[in-house]
Amino acid sequence: MLELKNISKSYNNFMLKDINLSIQKGEYFILLGRSGAGKSQLLELIAGLKSPDTGSIYLNGRDITGEKIQNRKTGMVFQDYAIFPHLTVYENIAYPLRIKKLKKEKIGNAVSEMAESVNIRHLLDRKINGLSGGEKQRVAVARTLVTSPDIILLDEPMASIDAPLRDDVRRLLRKINSMGITMMHVTHDYSEAVRLAHRVGVIHKGKILQVGDPDSVFSNPVNRFVARFAGIRNFFSVKINNQEGKTFAESVNCKYELPEGNYPDNGLMILKSDSINLSLKEQKDMNNCIEATVIEINRAESGYELLVDAGDRYHVLISKNETESFFLKAGKTVFLSFSPDSIRII
Amino acid sequence: MDKRSIFHWVVLVLSSLVLLFILAPLIGMVLDTTPAEFFETVRDEEVQDSVWLTLSVAFMATLVFSFMAIPFAWMMARYNFTGKQIVQGLIDLPIVLPHSAAGIALLGFISRDGLLGKAADAIGLNLVGNPVGIALAMAFVSLSFLINAARDGFAAVPERLEKAAMNLGATPLRMFFTVSLPLTWRNIASGFIMMFARGMSEFGAIVIIAYHPMTAPVLIYERFNQFGLSYARPASLFFILVALVIFIIIRVFSSRTNRTIKRASLNNY
Question: Which residues of B touch A47 (CB under 8 A)?
Answer without folding.
Answer: 163, 167
